[in-house]
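Researcher: Re-running this chain for the archive, since the previous output was lost when a drive failed. Same request as before.
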Amino acid sequence: MRIMAQMAMVMNLDKCIGCHTCSVTCKQVWTNRSGAEHIWFNNVETRPGQGYPRTYEDQERWKGGWKLDRRGRLKLKAGGRLKNLATIFANPNLPGIKDYYEPWTYDYENLTTAPAQEHMPVARPKSLLTGEDTSITWSSNWDDNLAGSTDNTHNDPILKKIGDQVKFEYEQAFMFYLPRICEHCLNPSCVASCPTGAIYKREEDGIVLVDQDRCRGWRQCVTGCPYKKMYFNRKTGKVEKCTFCYPRIEVGQPTICSETCVGRLRYLGLMFYDADRVLAAASTPDEHDLYEAQRQVFLDPKDPEVLAAARAAEIPEDWIEAAQRSPIWALINTYKVALPLHPEYRTMPMVWYIPPLSPVVDVVTETGEDGESHTNLFNAIASLRIPIDYLAELFTAGDARPVDLILRKLAAMRSYMRDINLGWDTNEAIAQAVGMTGQEMKDMYRLLAIAKYDERYVIPSAHYEDAHKLENVATECSLNVDGGPGMGGMGGMDASFGADPAVGSPSTPSRPEGVRINLLDWDGTGTPKGLFPSSSEQAEKGGSA
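Model: Regenerated structure tokens:
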């Protein structure tokens, strides 16, 4: 057993109202700068729909994730190392700007500078790529709330898998919201795809990050990621991705998307897993077994053997306690109501989802029956407005049985708690019908419905002994550079950087001794300190010679 810790997230799709607050706050914190207009670390998709970028789930086209070769071994769907090297200068499997959208602004100046005229002047959309007039035809949430539209929804890769079950008729239209971030996988294909080794998975908490100094913009990781959560910044020439808000996580705070979520649908917590089991689980032959295989990789934080292994691995005691209180463990392994997104990609994702329960109560009530009776709800599960097969293609590689059981648990919880809230006698048969006890029903209800802040977010802080690692990460991060190193910019320095106030002319910024020199940060004036030996150092070397 090689025990490791991983920060993970679960989202309850029953609570998402599609307000996009998570997307906007993430955008403001992480990608609110030039060159990152199309980069949305968090986006909310309306399902059914094409997603963002368009049809990203069509891996026959984009070649993301892993597949098994003839010997049953994992292999990148985009090809091995030799194929990646052969296509390193012309990768054929990259989303284009039309698959994202052409970033635009508006000609606001025309509103204030246009001469007096008969009609009100307009602010035409201007492309941020060319500066010319443009037509707005797509964006990150273009098909928002248009799940019944035949123009966009017919291109949904999931709908194509389930055939004619979904008909585009008003009476049968359905939709739900699917928030997405980077999955921070246990078996990340983006890491394996990177030719320079710039992408790495943090050992202490499993967060997947990009070293901006090592990234050379080859974009093999964009192809390799089946969720298409690797984004290329055209100005910096680097690839960027969701960081799981690691500066906040390190001090025990939730990610910004979780903090600002209106529906309180996100849960954060620590999971223990056996790193030695990951490869075998990801290599499970039958795609339908991948969900259960990943569940078996997770370790029970209350198991004495696991506790001994955690202490032997020098995992801090407060981290062990956090893993024991983790809402992620409860939702995935105790109540078993959370599912991974597209386990068939074999990346072992660590952002899981509780599937949505269609608004079935009103439909049953309209028939004259008790809409919250567990028998009526169970019978209605098979005819939900959101097809179970659609949810199964999203979360269980097409196996409808786990999805059906979870929806029955959610319906049973609703019926069981209704009896309690109305002061009626509890019916233990409701809980037993889905393999649970009455107490488990109450506990699950508390976590899903009325959990407090510290119950939804159980995040252990980073330790002082790791501070030097965190400082190194912080000093090497160049995401806030406008213009970007190597792309014609000055690496974050404008003309006044390092200027002498008395003279007004720029001078070369000094660096602390012992810090390596990066010429990408040089503004071209003077000589960077430390690049060449000083005259005194040369004299000393000459004297000693």
